[in-house]
Amino acid sequence: MPTLQLRRNDRRRHLVVCGDSPLAFRLVDELINRYDEDVTVILRSKQENYGPRIAQLSRVKVIEAAAPDNGAFQQAKLGSARALALLGSDDAGNIHAALLAQDINPDLRLVLRQFNMSLGHRVRTLFADCAVLSDAAMAAPSFVAAALGREGPTHIRVSGRTLYVVRRDEVDAERIICGLADTSDSTNADLLPAEPHSGDLVLAFTNGPDVVRAVGRQRGRFMAAVRRNFGSVFNRKVGAAALALLVLLAIGTTLFATFGGYTWWNAIYETALDVAGAAQPLDSLPVLNKITQVMVTIVGISIIPIITAVALDAVVSARLAAAAGPKGPFRDHVVVIGLGQVGVRVVAQLHDLGVPVVCIDKNDNARGIPLAKRLGLPVIIGDASRDDTLRAAYIGTSRALVTLSSHDVVNLEAALTARAIRDDLLVILRLFDNDFARLVERRFDINVSRSVSFLAAPAFAAAMVERQVIGTIPVGRRVLLIAEVPVGDGTGLNRLTIQEVEQRFEVRVIGLQRRTEQRLDWQPSAEHQLVPRDRLMVVATRSGLGQILAGSISSGQ
Fold it and tell me: Most buried among 284, 353, 393, 396, using CB within 10 Å?
């Protein structure tokens, strides 16, 4: 696609990116090739991590520095830059660098990568112009949806309304906002098809009954999980003893009622009186009644400790199982490999949905280990590419495998080992390289592959050029973006109708905020003519977003 020409007054003021991660590489590539920006990158070494790939990009200046400090910022000419992206994996380190950068250039736009979004939202208020984003939070819903066999994250919160991605035949027509994709060709989905009714994947409004049904399904899955795993925490010997005592109690009270001339309830009542010392002496009872009353009394005294033992044994067994790994049998669970920044979010979301999870990580100090243990989830410490590790996680009876290591080779090896154990297993594979992922899907028949940086980079790029991406919708290995686009004075969007905007750019307008109103119109007229200070809410392809953002800040050509 031809590069976009952005012609505002400070167009040549460069952007600065700190990092050498996959996200940094994709972000720089996005800024150069989709937004036609000049980018300076601060990284540790051109020879480490993604440094070699970044250095090979055109129109990028690379500065090697041990850390993004004052010296590095001076070399990058941060004082004249428009925006700075801090993409380190250390939240505190990114905040520290942001404070240094603000001292150098108070008008600088900051884009911070943060794992702890609660902290990030508080930190954002410390800066005049700051966006805080989490690539892990953006990508996790896609992995969860794929593990559950659905396309895209289920729900997206936009301007006070909850939207969700669903098949067209699963929702009422009046609640459909727009078509998203035609997925009849699973290898090459048609995003935002020109014919409004041709897409089988749509974006729709939720309503109350939908939420109720969703909660009901989650509760149902939770109870199913409890039933499936009950045997692993129930001590059969203690349970058998309790059952035997209950049977004896039933026999004793029946004998009382049949041969002692008592009703069933009177038998129990007089036994209780005898235990309290208030009933008639045993000597005055017939022999059979004496034996029966003694038996019922002993059983009554013993049953409470036995029931207590059953409950305590189940609790202790469950905690030991969580600490030592799954003892089985586990069924219909999801096996998650890698408890890093993405893995911990995927595990938490699956648990919230009531889906049983078994976790694997080679590092017993991984970020997600404390959360998994707090949730009572089994964790296996070991090499996920080994056959015995996967079998310990009951991969043969699982519903899906999600590999979330940061290394493509490790993820692929684990996936192929799992497929050797069970050839029909649903595998969701985290891979960085798109071309490699396509080959893997085709040659090894891997169901779904995802790239965290691929899903997150468009939102970071839009934030760098001062536009807000509200949500992402993955479709296969491609992605749609929900974004807010302002109409500026003298721009390419001015005086276009909504219909013309959709025809000219790869976007669908789902909402309009008129300059004279505060509320968002979810069903704007296709003939509405845009004027300055109108704001559009759009669903766009990556290239379409770049085109419409260019049109919103430059003169149309």
Answer: 393
pLDDT greater than 60 at residue 334: yes
Give CA 44 to chain center in angstroms: 30
Taking a C-beta distance cutoff of 8 angstroms, is the pair 456, 138 a contact?
Answer: yes
- State the DSSP string of 293-350: HHHHHHHHHHHHHHHHHHHHHHHHHHHHHHHH---S---S-EEEE--SHHHHHHHHHH
3-state DSSP assignment of residue 97: helix
> Mean pLDDT, to the nearest integer, of 162-180?
86
Burial 256-284 (b: 16+ CB within 10 A, else e): bbeebebeeeebbebbeebeeeebeeeee
Structure tokens given for 139: 């990508």
Q: Which of 103-117, 157-171, 316-330 has the highest mean pLDDT?
A: 103-117
Q: Are 517 and 471 in contact (CB under 8 A)?
A: no
- pLDDT, tens only, 497-543: 999 999 888 899 999 999 888 788 988 999 999 988 888 999 988 78
Query: What integer best gives the mean pLDDT of the chain?
Result: 78
pTM: 0.64
Residue length of the chain: 557
Question: Are residues 167 and 200 in contact, defined by beta-carbon separation less than 8 angstroms?
Answer: yes
d(CA 207, CA 554): 39
Residues with Cβ within 8 Å of 256's Cβ and at least 6 positions away in sequence, in order, are 262, 264, 266, 267, 268, 271, 289, 292, 293, 296
Phi and psi at 95, nearest 5°, equal -65, -40
The CB density around residue 285, as the number of other CB atoms within 10 Å, is 17
